[in-house]
Amino acid sequence: MSIANELSSDVAAAVLAATAMLVSAAGFFWMSTWGADALEHASATVPLVLGGLGFGAAIAPVNAALLASTDAAVHGVSSALLVVARMVGMLIGVSALTTVGLRRYYAVADRIPPLSEVCQDTVGTCPAYNDQLLGAGLAQLEAVFVGAGACAVVAAALALGTLRGADTRGTAPTATVLRGFG
């Protein structure tokens, strides 16, 4: 039984899901500040954990709200449709963020002077040119993580609106059913 499952029977689903998505947003916005050497430091683990915990904690209250809002006879189908909707949403999100990130990369890379100008006295590439390409890659990652953070903030607002009123608190059958979802 996860902590989020336990909390979903005591805390309103809307509040728990919104808080979880804001935790994810904090992780993503933090990741958007990473430099070239960020992953060389153990502190880079913190925003990764925030992002993962936030996403993971948002799943239980959404499941609880769905199960509390549907008849027991359709819990299986309802849960399956929720998983499909989550997967489709992730695919659309990854596609959109990839598009935004690549657009940013190409916008920055287009401003890099030709290799022959940057590495005038060198055959092939040189550190100055590689640094400019790295800068374009970092701009791409920044755009992706800022976009992911913004999406998580929007998801938090949507959770507050759409899950408001879902009666998930104090329902032992819901908590029992959620144990099956891990």
Secondary-structure blueprint of this entry?
Blueprint: H1 3-8, H2 13-31, H3 45-69, H4 75-109, H5 115-118, H6 127-162, H7 172-179
Helix pairs in contact: 2-3, 2-6, 3-7, 4-6
General description of the model:
The radius of gyration is 21 Å and the shape is elongated. The chain has seven helices and no strands. It has one domain. 73% of the residues lie in helices and 0% in strands.
Summed up:
It is built from 7 helices and no strands. The chain is an all-alpha fold and 182 residues long.
Tally of DSSP helical segments: 7
* Largest sheet report: none
Between the first and last Cα atoms, what is the distance in angstroms? 6 Å
Q: C-alpha Rg, in Å?
A: 21 Å
Given helix and strand content, the structural type is: mainly alpha
Rounded mean pLDDT is 88
Strand content: under 5%
Q: Stretches where pLDDT falls below 50 for ≥5 residues?
A: none
What is the count of distinct domains? 1
Structural shape: elongated
Helix content: over 70%
What series of H and E elements makes up the topology?
A: HHHHHHH
Number of strands: 0
Multimeric organization: single chain
